[in-house]
Amino acid sequence: MDNASYIALSRQITLRRELDVSANNLANMNTTGFKFEQLLITNEYGEPAKNDPIKTPANFAYDNGLGRDFRQGTLTQTGGSFDVAIAGDGAFFTVQTPRGTAYTRDGAFLPGPDGTLQTQSGYQVQGDGGPITIDPKNGEVTISADGILSQMVQGQPLRVGKLQVVRPDSLSNMKKEGDGTYTLRTGGMIPATDARVQQGMLESSNVNPMIEITKLVEINRAYSSVASIIEKQNELNRTAVERLGKVA
């Protein structure tokens, strides 16, 4: 295989990865708090094919990981007492998972069997003093814009906790985990004092389905074009070998 085929093959590999990423975006277009992802592609210089007399390095397509768009999605009203959304970019709720502390934009919470506020996956939502416990004997829960949860007790509001809303030093340090959660690779978290919590609302995915469908079409066309280049190059090689054989 010559340089042209190697380079085309490297592009095919990244196109297949792009296809997976775009399909995953579409699959999560209705997932609460999901963030749009895209493949980061860079050029990587490598040694040319050994049987090629040209000594200039070959320029390959290289998968450099995923980039995420952490901009806020549309806030949709649900009316649920325990549904909360963060208005603003780059801030997260804090939850406790079996793997340790994690962060999420999915605010579809509910009281667990023991009364603690949990995610749909059963992870405890963290407040400023640890897990937040809801007493079903008390009144309806209200959540203020700064994340304070209160219940009415004998006609008086009782503070039961405050959602721990934080922001990373750098969003590039966020590592995606399962169930809509993220962990930190490096760095730390600081309180997101400017973030505002909205009760009775959830944040929709920030995926634009029309763009993703168009991208899928473009990826498939590009993949076919590259496959055609490889086939034509192989045909040229076969023709060259056949002619050399006849001369010999």
What does the model show?
This protein is an alpha+beta fold. It has two helices and 19 strands. The protein has helices at residues 3-27, 209-247; strands at 37-46, 58-68, 75-77, 84-87, 92-97, 100-104, 110-111, 117-118, 124-127, 130-131, 141-143, 148-153, 156-162, 165-168, 174-176, 181-184, 189-191, 196-199, 201-203. Helix 1 runs antiparallel to helix 2. The radius of gyration is 26 Å and the shape is elongated. The two termini are 22 Å apart.
Provide a short characterization of the protein structure.
By secondary structure, the chain is an alpha+beta fold.
What descriptive keywords fit this protein?
19 strands; eight-stranded antiparallel beta sheet; alpha+beta; 2 domains
Uncertain ranges: none
The counted number of beta strands is 19
Strand content: 25-35%
How many DSSP helices? 2
Q: What is the radius of gyration computed over CA atoms, rounded to a whole number of angstroms?
A: 26 Å
Shape estimate: elongated
Distance between the termini: 22 Å
**Main sheet: strands, sense, barrel:** 8 strands, antiparallel
Q: Approximately how much helix is present in the residues?
A: 25-40%
> What's the SSE pattern?
HEEEEEEEEEEEEEEEEEEEH
- Tell me, rounded to a whole number, the average pLDDT: 88
Structural class: alpha+beta
Q: Could you say how many structural domains there are in total?
A: 2
